[in-house]
Amino acid sequence: QKKISDILEKSAPKPGVPADLQNLLHQHFSENRSVIEVEDLKLSDSCFLPANDLTHSFSSYLKEICPKWAKLRKKHEEKKSVVMLVICSSALRCLELIKSMTAFKGDCRVLKLFAKHIKIKEQMNMLEKGVFHIGVGTPGRIKALVEQDGLCLNSTKYMILDWNWRDQKLRRMMDIPEIKKETIDLLEMSIIKLCREGSVKLGLF
């Protein structure tokens, strides 16, 4: 019996492409949905931003996929919402990415959307009172905020999945069953619909 970390250790890092997420969703949904329902949850290639070819830092990747960021940031005035959502597998990884966004942040306000040491009520209060441009968090907490009407996704234009990064056990976010399930639930809840309508684009970093 090979452990997943043994297999991963031997596999060369390969950048995530839209087909990876498309296949994952198809497998997940076709287990217990009708053909018509699965069709409704399909993401076409046009829903995706260019994927990270593994040469990018997080800052340079964001600059590439969102060259008009300054304009978007200035226009965004809605509370309870963010222009960009970044989904990571852990609170520590969220903090790492927030630190590495230096060149991109400028005057933008970033909100931590994970559960570690932060109560959901605090996040809801902050979202209600202020204008934030980027939310960086874990899928479970983001899903809970959307469900409790603390976070509205209608102004969200970009959703970035921290797809290629590996933790100490060499697992990517979609190799961790709980994170995978919460990410798919979040996508199904509203993101897939917004992507299909063309208002949200997905990026695999």
Q: How many structural domains does the protein architecture include? A: 1
Main sheet: strand order: 2-3-1-4-5
In angstroms, what is the radius of gyration? 17 Å
Q: Helicity range of the residues?
A: 40-55%
Short overview:
The protein is of the alpha/beta class.
Summarize the structure in words:
It comes from Halcyon senegalensis. InterPro entries: Cms1, P-loop_NTPase. Pfam families: CMS1. This is CMS1 protein. The structure is a single chain. This protein has a 5-stranded parallel beta sheet, sandwiched between helices. The protein has one domain (4-204): P-loop containing nucleotide triphosphate hydrolases (Rossmann fold, 3-Layer(aba) Sandwich), CATH 3.40.50. The mean pLDDT is 92. Helices cover 46% and strands 10% of the residues. Helix 9 crosses helix 10. It has helices at 4-10, 18-30, 35-40, 58-65, 69-75, 91-99, 102-105, 120-129, 139-147, 177-197, and strands spanning 84-87, 110-113, 134-137, 158-161, 201-204. It is globular and about 45 Å long. The chain has 205 residues and is α/β, with parallel strands linked by helices. It has 10 helices and 5 strands; from the N terminus they run H-H-H-H-H-E-H-H-E-H-E-H-E-H-E.
